[in-house]
Design brief:
With 671 residues, this protein is an alpha+beta fold. Helix content is 32%, strand content 21%. The strands form 4 sheets. Strands 1, 2, 3, 4, 5, 6, 7, 8, 9, 10, 11 and 12 form a 12-stranded mixed β-sheet that branches. Strands 18-19-20-15-21 form a 5-stranded parallel β-sheet, sandwiched between helices.
Length: 671
């Protein structure tokens, strides 16, 4: 039975050798790209396109056509490949339409070699886009699945390929356009207009083939790829190619064989590890064979990476992505069922002959029955995916290292001060209402790139309870202390320093664990004089480091200069701050993170409204967190509002004090 997918929905694949059949109302270009676990395309040799139609396990047509047939052999793709993306684009420079909104919605079907459809997807909702990621085949826990994507790009293939991490996106897009232009005379024109969805399915099942489309699946084994610039490329996805400069903005690249370069101005951030050079990461652990008909058992660290820490990091965000898309698919399916029922009921009401009487009642009942069936199917798919994700979460959570673990994780009882800084830090948990039991750790990379704002304003939590302003202020400060303690605990001795401004002294009780264990650089600053002193010293520090770095004289810093990362906790802002102090605070928020000074504000934004719009840039530059569960974190890609929940120390637990005492003892020995 064919699975008719909606955007974001996935479906398991039981066959390795497949055909992807594409039907459109105008000649389009079909491209297939190989990607790593993070979806990144490592080079032009990872893309099958009209100028280089074969890659290991892939074969695409050499020309634009109204109907396409792509051959895929998942057993033949290299082990480093975790995703196969099917990309569609309108030919550039031709006389045809320039945007998908002007043509019929493309239809994509995944079939077996016998022609039987496994899954299909109609790409709707496109307007100004001229290129689209139609669907992707991806490897998850040793099994392959197909996912409907439908992500469009108004900038064409160049923008699409660049978004997937390809350095040579512009050159490759130009090469594809040249290859397509040379074959436009051979392009297969659109078939006659279809009159029903059934016609579309039949057209896709037996597409017209061009002279360069033999209609046969590729033979297993690598095929030397051709470059659009002429000649063969030196390597394939499973082989090291020429050394390419690392570029800022890539997701964690477990397969990189290059040395990282410095980020360029205006670009994203290079997350590659500086010590990972000229080697491929070890393969992830594999799950034990599952019983026939049963899903594979999850394994902690089931992701690529150079260490168990990086494998777990990649696995956690893979779970986040799976939960986001699974929930988006469910919501989309329910919305589709609702709109379909509304349309059918409207048709019944618009016909006077069926508005009343038995015929109308039967039509309305049939519409409601179809709605219930569609919703039940969507709920069944959601339950299946959530069950697998819950099993994975149950395995992953106990295996997390201290930097990623909740405070109630037993790993903290075996805590020792680390020798190296971790790659990320847990700031809390994320979850969605459809999967309230599944908590995805919210991990952020270190060193912090943005300051944190712990919102102490009175608000209602996601469970409907209401917390007054005094209780919120106390909870906000306890949350800040828990975050600061975790940052101190995961850094090596002497690599992290914490300062506190508590102008009115209202946070003394919450700050007690930091003060009593002696891990602060100095007692919390009080009053206007204390605020001015701390801000003055940290501002001067940023100025000195900034001048040294930009002048290329980092060794010219004063003797005894503290080069550790600095964290400033500001409680109960804006009490005790004058205009000069506010400007210094904004300066630290803007310039500090790049030079080792990070800001953690504990404040109610409404209380600072007296400063007018002066502080708006400050709040926008900080990552807002809350001391209670609150669905305020927006995910613009799939439109979710994630519920953020802080990871606080369990009531009555002494684990935070025990950890901080070890940090203080190690610091005493170090000094």
């Amino acid at each position: 039975m064919t699975a008719e997918l909606v955007r974001g929905q996935n479906h398991p694949l039981s066959q390795a050798r497949l055909e992807i059949r594409i039907s459109a109302g105008t000649p389009i270009v079909a491209v297939a790209a190989l990607g790593d676990e993070n979806g990144r395309i490592h080079g032009v040799e990872w893309v099958a396109h009209p100028g280089a139609p074969t890659q290991p396990g892939l074969e695409v047509p050499r020309q634009a056509a109204a109907d396409h047939r792509l051959a895929v052999d998942l057993d033949a793709v290299p082990e480093t490949v975790h995703r196969v993306s099917v990309l569609l684009a309108l030919p550039a420079g031709g006389t045809g339409p320039l945007r998908f909104g002007a043509v019929a919605a493309p239809f994509v079907a995944v079939t077996g070699l016998d022609g039987g459809e496994v899954a299909s997807y109609t790409i709707t909702g496109l307007e100004a886009e001229s290129a689209v990621v139609a669907l992707e085949l991806y490897r998850r826990q040793g099994a392959w699945k197909v996912r409907a994507v439908g992500q469009g790009y108004a900038g064409g293939l160049a923008e699409l390929l660049a978004d997937q991490g390809l350095l040579q996106a512009q050159q490759l897009a130009a090469g594809i356009d040249d290859a397509v232009a040379q074959g436009l005379a051979r392009s297969v024109q659109a078939p006659p207009p279809r009159t029903a969805d059934g016609d579309r399915s039949r057209q896709a099942a037996a597409p017209a083939l061009g002279p360069d489309q033999g209609g046969t699946a590729p033979q297993p084994g690598p095929v030397p790829p051709m470059s659009p610039y002429g000649g063969q490329t030196p390597g394939g996805p499973g082989q090291p190619g020429p050394r390419q400069p690392s570029y800022p903005g890539a997701a964690p690249d477990p397969n990189a064989v290059t040395e990282p370069s410095a980020p360029t101005a205006g670009g994203p951030i290079d997350y590659s590890h500086p010590r990972r050079q000229n080697a491929a990461p070890p393969p992830p652990p594999t799950a034990p064979p599952a019983a026939p008909g049963q899903p594979a058992q999850p394994v902690a660290g089931d992701a690529t990476g150079w260490s168990m820490e990086e494998r777990l990091y990649n696995q956690v965000w893979g779970m986040f992505e799976d939960l986001a898309r699974t929930t988006a698919a469910y919501r989309s399916a329910v919305d589709f069922a609702e709109s379909r029922m509304d349309k059918e009921l409207e048709q019944v009401l618009s016909d006077p002959r069926s508005r009343i009487g038995g015929q109308g009642d039967a039509a309305r009942e049939a519409a409601r029955t179809r709605h219930a069936e569609l919703v039940a199917q969507a709920r069944e798919a959601l339950h299946r995916d959530l069950t697998q994700l819950a099993a994975e979460a149950d395995v992953v959570e106990p295996a997390l290292p201290p930097a990623y673990a909740r405070w109630d994780n037993p790993v903290w009882h075996a805590y020792r001060v680390p020798m190296e800084m971790p790659m990320a830090l847990r700031l809390g948990d994320l979850h969605l209402p459809e999967a309230d039991r599944i908590r995805i750790p919210m991990l952020v990379r270190l060193p912090l790139e943005r300051g944190l704002w712990i919102d102490s304003g009175a608000a209602g939590s996601s469970d409907g309870s209401f917390t007054d302003s005094h209780a919120m202020s106390r909870l906000a400060m306890e949350t800040a202390v828990a975050h600061a303690a975790r940052l101190l605990a995961v850094h090596p001795v002497g690599e992290f320093t914490v300062h506190v401004i508590d102008a009115a002294g209202s946070g003394a009780q919450s700050l007690a664990p930091l003060v009593e264990t002696g891990v602060l650089a100095a007692p919390p600053a009080r009053g206007a004089a204390g605020v001015a002193d701390v801000l003055g010293r940290l501002t001067q520090r940023v100025d000195l480091v900034q001048m040294a770095v930009r002048g290329g004289a980092a060794d010219s810093l004063p003797p005894g200069f503290d080069t550790s990362q600095q964290l400033l906790i500001v409680n109960d802002f804006p009490h005790g701050f004058d205009d000069r102090a506010v400007n210094q605070l904004r300066y630290l928020a803007d310039e500090g993170p790049a030079f080792g000074v990070h800001l953690m504000m504990v404040a109610d934004r409404e209380e600072s409204s007296g400063y007018g719009p002066l502080l708006d840039p400050l709040w926008r530059s900080l990552l807002r967190l809350t001391p209670v569960a609150d669905d305020h974190l927006a995910d613009p890609w799939v439109g979710h509002a994630w519920t953020y929940e802080p990871t606080l120390v369990p009531p009555g637990s002494q684990i935070l004090q025990q950890v901080l005492r070890q940090v203080a003892a190690a610091r005493t020995k170090f000094m």
